[in-house]
Structure formats: C-alpha cells, structure tokens
Specification:
The protein contains ten helices and no strands. The radius of gyration is 19 Å and the shape is globular. It starts with a helix and ends with a helix. About 75% of the residues lie in helices and about 0% in strands. The chain has one domain. The chain is mainly α and about 210 residues long.
C-alpha cells in the first residue's frame, strides 16, 4: 500500500512539473516549419466544427493546430486555443461592427501567445486587426473577394516577415474555399467538404512554399 501511495505521489508530482514546464518555460520555434497537409486538414476540420456549432470539438482541434503549426507545448496549447475559440464564438454571435470589435481583445491575446512562441517577434496588434477585419468583410456584401485575399495575405505577411504579394496564391485558394462554403449554406454535402479540404490543403502548401 505504501509503495502504491509513493508511486501515486511521484506520478502526480511529475504531472505537475510537466504542466508547469509546459506553461511557464520560455519556448521559441521557427514558425516556418510545419506540415502543410496536416495544417490544411485541421483547418478544414475546424471550419466544419465552427459552422456546425461544435464548440468543444473546435476547441480541441484548435489546440492541436497550435501544437502542429506553431509548436506550442502541450498544456500551453489549451489557453492559446481558448483565446482563438473565444474570439471566433464572440464574433459569430455579433451583428454589427460594434459587436465584432469585442473579438479583438481575445485575438490580440491569441496572437500575443503565438508571438511569444516565435523566434522572430511580429506586430501582434497589426495581425489581430487584419484577422478581425477579414472576418468582418466576409459579412459585408459590398466587399469583393479581392479584399478578403488582401487581408489574408497581410496577416501572413505580418507573421512571416515577408511581402504580402508572396502570399497571393495562399490567399486566393483559401478564399476559393470560403466562397464554396458560403455558396452551399445548409445544403453542404460530404463531397463539398472534401473539396473544401483539398483547397485548404493546397492553400497551406502554397504558404509553406512561400516561407521556405
């Protein structure tokens, strides 16, 4: 019995140390190093969870994406994912720019956490503003898809310190996937989701190629 208690205490202590190290120790990684196929598949899965209102699944997918794309330690990925999910759900419930603006704070916290993981710091506020703006203009019919592409490229340019024009193909393919998703509405099928997934994989492949 004593041995079991001792083992349990040691295991619990090891778990606490792992969590503390994951959350607190500095970690810097090259954001250019990721598997574009995996990121594209996760991106598509998150889209589906978002549109189907599956919040827990979206959160878990976000945490995995943060680990695979930005190399976050396991336990740290969850508070980072929480800020991204909070921004998405806050925005989803909005009806006008005043409502949408409430998503800016969690977006800044999300990009701030990514910035702390990066070996090359970037402008957190600029990335958050551009990210929120393209979310907004998707809901404003007066904007052309070229505006979506421009802002998507600007977010990537901020994170990766390269000219926005180098991310034109990434943005074009991602917007093509958005247009397809929007055109289907509630009648979207499994075949449509497969096409969206293929477009997103190709999009992330284009981004990966641009930053290599």
């Amino acid at each position: 019995m004593k041995n079991i208690k001792r083992f349990s205490l040691l295991a619990f202590s090891a778990l606490l140390l792992w969590i503390a190290a994951s959350l607190l120790l500095p970690r810097h990684s090259n954001l250019r190093e990721f598997d574009p196929a995996v990121v594209g598949q996760l991106d598509a899965a998150m889209w589906r969870s978002y549109y189907e209102g599956r919040k827990l699944r979206l959160f878990l997918q976000l945490s995995r994406l943060v680990r695979r794309q930005f190399h976050a330690p396991y336990w740290r990925s969850f508070p980072i994912a929480y800020q991204a999910a909070r921004a998405a759900t806050t925005f989803q419930s909005g009806a006008n720019r005043s409502d949408y603006a409430r998503a800016l704070s969690p977006l800044e916290k999300y990009f701030g956490a990514i910035n702390r993981l990066s070996d090359r710091p970037f402008d957190v506020k600029s990335a958050a503003r551009s990210e929120l703006e393209w979310w907004i203009i998707r809901r404003e019919p007066q904007h052309a898809t070229a505006d979506w592409e421009r802002l998507l490229a600007e977010v990537a340019a901020t994170l990766y310190h390269q000219p926005a024009k180098q991310f034109a193909e990434y943005a074009r393919l991602r917007v093509e996937a958005m247009v397809l998703r929007d055109s289907k509405g509630p009648t979207i099928t499994e075949t449509d989701w497969k096409e969206i997934t293929a477009l997103l994989e190709e999009s992330w492949q284009a981004l990966w190629a641009a930053v290599q």
